[in-house]
Structures are given as C-alpha cells and as structure tokens.
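1st attempt posting a full record on here, be nice pls
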Amino acid sequence: MIRNAIEPSFDFHANSLLAATFSHPSEVLENPFLSAEAKRCVLAAWASDAFAVEGSPWLRQLPGAPNPIPVRDILAALRGLDRDDDPHPGGAGALHRPSLDEPAMAMAVGF
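the predicted structure (as tokens):
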C-alpha cells in the first residue's frame, strides 16, 4: 500500500482557505488564536508550489488575494516559528563543529 505523502492531520484545502484570510505571513505569526502547529500548517500551505505565480516562481498568490507574496517572506515566517520552538540555540542539542585544535581533527588531517 502506498502511504499518502501528506499527513492525515494536514488538510491542505482547509489550511489554504485559512491562509487566504491573511494578507502577509507576519499576520499568521501574530495571530493569538492559532497554535504554533496550526501556524506552521497555514504557512506551509501558502508556500506550496500550488500557489506559485506563473512565470514568477518566487511569488505565491492565494485565490482572491490582492497581491502576491514573495516566498522568502513565507519561509522567513516559518523560520521564525522554528526560532520560537528552540529558545536555546546554544543548548545541549546545538550542532558542534570541531575545530582544527581538537585531536580528532588533527589526526584526520595528518598532524
């Protein structure tokens, strides 16, 4: 059996309709009635290629929206949600990049 690529809890149509009530992604972030998960779903639906402006793939326009929105604004809003989810960027889960001073790196490069 082939699994659906979209999670059952993600209703693309409903999230697209909800997205159409906003004029800019920042309004989604500022909405006090939506959970972070709901905001992420709305923004993801808005960023979908289904709403790409023909001949301008960097723009998204929802049906009935007066103006197209740059996809970079939508993606920036999604990144804003990610920052809100991870308030401790230097915490234990942060990516550790080894330096050349570390013994393992020195051995790897032949010192």
